[in-house]
Amino acid sequence: MPDALLLLPDFTLIVIGWLLCRHTPLNRAVWDGVERLVYYLLFPALLFSAILRYPLQPSAAAALAGCGLGVVGLGIGLAYALKLWPGVDARLHASGAQVAFRFNSYVALALAERLAGIQGVAWVALLVALCVPVCNIAAVWPLARHGGHGFWRELAKNPLIVSTAAGLVCNLIGLQLPELATTTLVRIGAAALPLGLMAVGAGLTFGGLKRAPGLAAAFLAIRHAILPAAAIAMTIALKMPPAQQAIVVAFAALPTASSAYVLAARMGGDGSFVAGLVTLSTLIGMAGLPLALLGLQALG
Which backbone phi and psi does 36 adopt, to 5 degrees? Predict the structure, then answer.
């Protein structure tokens, strides 16, 4: 399957969710329950099992880890800075800022093996383990502040952060779960992708983007133009091995996390605005990701 088609199944699931919610008895009330299931059980199980499955070796990939954190840090800084724009709606900014720096870890793991084999999967697992906690903390911060929630309380009870931290600790101490437990976690986590994406579609109202088209464009420009360009520059400047360069650039060009909508909806943000951003990010990523890799080949 060409790289441009890698995200087509994700977008198809979003469309299916939209159709089911609006044209079948599976209406909005059903999808509210699905969102909670994904947020509190399925996606945490996926994160925990994915991080635990691959042994972390930060010392063997220090430059790669540094580039990944650098890309995420740049996205967070630029997304937060947009709040300083005159006339920016605080609720829309708090809801959508995460779209600029979060990434779709499902696509990352799927693409890694095609780019660099099993070693590529291990490298992406390292990036996921390091960057998911940073991204989730940065996503919760503006939503917690805008909603009047206690930041540390929200972090302590955020299932995505708790599951990531638990996966990191268990990985670093070398914990091996029984095969039955591992298989169960993997199967639970596997349900997160289709249900999470369909929940995005069920909550989709393109009208949400009309309230702040300029802000939406800025978030997506950071995610799909600035971060891939920065990753290309960093990997070339550091003279990283070609396989690691491809992994870092692909990581920087990923579409945003599908769970961004669920987080915004569960924390009182503007879910329809974020759902539109997630859908557009998936569409842009279908073309932008292979273009970023072609740009690396041309400049590397």
Answer: -65, -40
